[in-house]
Amino acid sequence: MSIASVLDEGVSTGPVAPARRRRSRSHWILVGPGLVYLILLFVVPVGALLATSLYVPVPGGDIGQYQPALHWQNYVHALSQFWPVMLRSFWFALVATVAALVIGYPMAYAIAVRARGRTLLQGMLLVLVVAPFFTSFILRTIAWKQILADDSLVVSILHWLNLLPEDARLTATPFAVVCGLTYNFLPFMVLPIFAGLERLDARMLEAGADLYAAPITTFRTVTWPLSLPGVVAGTLLVFIPAVGDYVNATLLGNNTNTTMIGQVIDARFFKVLDYPTAAALSVVLMAAIMLLVTVYIRRAGTEELL
Amino acid sequence: MTALRRRPVPTDPRVRALIAHATRRSRERSTDLSRRSFLLGAAGTAGAAALLAACGTGPTAAPSAAAKDNSSSDKLVRWANWTQYLDQNDDGTEYPTLEAFEAKTGIRVTYAEDIEDNDTFYGKVNGQLKNGQDIGYDIVTLTDWMAARMIRLGYTQALDKAAMPNSTNILENLVNVDFDPGRKHSLTWQSGFAGLAWDKSKVPGGLHSVEDLWKSELAGRVEVLSEMRDTMGLIMLSQGVDPSGDWTDDDFYASLDILREKIGSGHIRKVLGNSYTQDLSSGDAIAVIGWSGDITSLNYESDDRFEFAIPDAGGTLWSDNMMVPIGSPARSNAEKLMDYYYDPEVAAQVAAWVNYITPVQGAKEAMDAIDPDLAENPMIFPTPEILSNVSVFRTLEPDEEERYNGEFLTVIGA
Fold first, then answer.
1. Which of A165, B159, B234, B375 places its Cα 20 to 30 Å from the Cα of B396?
2. For residue A59, which residues of chain B lie inside 8 Å, CB to CB?
3. Which of B270, B403, B411 should one mutate to test binding to chain A, selecting the residue with the greatest count of A CBs within 10 A?
4. What is the CATH number of domain B192-317+395-412?
5. pLDDT tens, position by position, B247-281
């Protein structure tokens, strides 16, 4: 659980006491490898991405040939063409995150609180949560395509129960894509929440009961606030990759009303070879996610936690 | 049918000698009418394309010289191809002709079904090609228009035809293609048609035209190809526009509007590459624009559930071409492999499985020994009537291609 605990610590970190540190070379030697790694594999690519987003086509050049420029119009062009897709991606990711929270929180609660003390059961349940990772992400998504296919058991049963109109389908619909996103990112929600609830002191719940609080009140005033760091970490871990996801949208969607921004960036980059538009969309996506996450952490994260 | 299709050429050396003899004799006499008619039929379309390509741009910023050939020290060739495009055994685990090649030459082959569509494949490797680097494949198999781009940009190695004696078996109409006159950089792998395919149990009346795809009872269960030239080619033909001719922007955009409307209304469920066959199998799609050989292959797995037809208004004809990328260190191994597949007997074995048009002269005679029915199959050895009803999408200028492809991709939601 080290990753999860590191993550939620990152979220819940309060102001650090300004300890006086001895400045020495060992400081830099320790930071060095990580810094070089980040500069090479993060700063340089992001710089290249920003530069590419302003490129213009070589006059009279072949497909996919661009030259450096400062053509800010690329952003206007990219956004005016693809803003609905951008909005849809955030919407799908939001729905998937909420769904994952609704499904994942009780799971985490059951494993961390209800199964407390029963080490074997707890271990087995955790393995079950992580088990899907032993199979390829792509394979699992393709399996979903079969599960939701028109001739599948699921669709037949839904038709039979009249829950789904006779001419309605499941694949290539927003529903299928959001289902896929929720399914694929669910463990990222469960694990951080589990890590938070695992440390929940059961005596606090007892204290709540002793003070005549109804279980629901105890949950609202004790359990939920204490699990918030895990919830914040979990929602971020689901939301951020879900916005940019294109595997679910391609395999379970692939319809114009399910197109997500990741698909557009992929197609602009690999199929149309329109690198500037792809880069501009990536930059906008990155900036939008950063903005949303900052606002979210400020509101849901630190303020309530402090 | 399944048993027949996979019947190998008889192992008896005398029978083999007879087949070889018959093949040679018929080539000398050149009595094969259907093949000659094929040449005539396709020559017209190729001619129009040649004219248009004549004013194409030359190679710009071509990568440096071809990579050093290490073929003799490293006996390996890596081949990127499309799915269901090489003969397999019944389990789908082995490729008989490929194994025969390995046994014969001692060259190991890494065969990868890595090409889902031309654009995606090119998009992944073009950065390395531009710098003359090894892309991890020694043979790539790409469609005419993409082969044209690769050769135009200098991303392919010149082939040593002297080391490939069988390469002269190529059908005459395929020798002087506009993008590679004399076939200095490429050899045809297979050719095929794009047309209509449907699930016979669910579309009882069958399909005769692209308009039939738009019938209300098929709503939401129609899929079309992400290959622009095939999908747009078929729609344009249905509008009376010949995609091999001198059509205008208006013609293209009128057809694109039809596609946009059908996708927007949800009538077309998905637009995708080779994986449409999975959706036909799963029942998500019951009527598609698809490729001829795929449907035959699919039928072997699913009891003849599907049928393929070229629409009355016409279909498209394309070829895929084997090329050696500029950074490949195994050109001569690759040449040996290509040469091997131009042996008529081997070509017939492949054609009997993949069911696409084989580019190798003498394969029809070799096919007679494998399965006389298949030798008469018009999807493998097309008749003049069929060839007169298909066209090759004309070669596009780089700026046209960028614009049309960009618009097409926008419409299909990418």
1. B159
2. none
3. B270
4. 3.40.190.10
5. 999 999 999 999 999 998 889 998 988 889 989 98
